[in-house]
Amino acid sequence: MPVYFVLVSLLTFLSVEITLSSLQNLDVDLDLIDDGGWETSASNLLAFPGPCDIEVRNAASLSQQEFLSRYAYSKPVVIRGATDNKVFQDQCRKDAILKEYSSKRIRLSSANTHSYEKVDVTLDYYVTHVLKPQTLSKLGNETFYWFGDNNFTEWKSLIDLYKPPPYFLPKMTGAYSFGLAGAGTGVPFHFHGPGFGEVVFGRKRWFMYAPEKTPHFHPNRTTLQWLYEDYPELHSSDRPLECTIGQGEEMENYYIGNAHASFLFTSCTSAIHCYPDDRGYTGSKTTGT
């Protein structure tokens, strides 16, 4: 069965120096975005979308053969228009998902590279008491969000609605994962097998290094802290590839061996289709300073 991750998250991004007065430079009007009820206040935008230096392709002109030969094993790509997930999207709206699943228990993970700590709560408790915008003072190992570890029996009715992208890797299978996170959160740099990440609501910024490059970061510092403290100081040759993706777009970025991180800019639901590698490895390898 394919592996997917649905992440409801509030994504924020930075480019060099950010102040709230820079809101006029934001390339989207938050009032015009269908956020599914996962609203992001402008006051919680600590950073903004940056440039996109990853190739963007329309699914209508991208065949399975070209996907394999050009991207799957060598570089990331943003794919637009691969599937129509409106039914799934509607069920991920805040009112709909709380009506159906509020009493279901979910497992939260700490927002650091290794994600060692786990906490079990109900979805209602998480949305009411835990789901908050990230602050610059809070460390990743002190931040908890819903990032997978799903009970697929309880969530089957929702996951079954998701339509995966039409691309695949030979001799590999996948699995689904579902989650929800707050504005400014994100996963620090980590490694795992190849996969897709689709945004259902909101916007999400990805950072990716080539396999031969090792990013310098502290595994307990958040992506937000890395953006403010480390990213502006990077030489152009040391910067990762990056792109912010929006509703209905998919990032194929987990080609084997590359370090990647993510950052949530506005209220965002994303579905991730993650393939294990050909050795059956689906865990995370990590590195840091």
UniProtKB/TrEMBL annotation:
SUPFAM superfamilies: Clavaminate synthase-like (SSF51197). One of its GO terms (molecular function) is cis-regulatory region sequence-specific DNA binding. One of its GO terms (cellular component) is nucleus. Residues 1-21 form the signal peptide. InterPro entries: JMJD6_ArgDemeth/LysHydrox (IPR050910). Keywords: Signal. It comes from the Eukaryota. This is JmjC domain-containing protein 8-like isoform X1. The gene is LOC106068815.
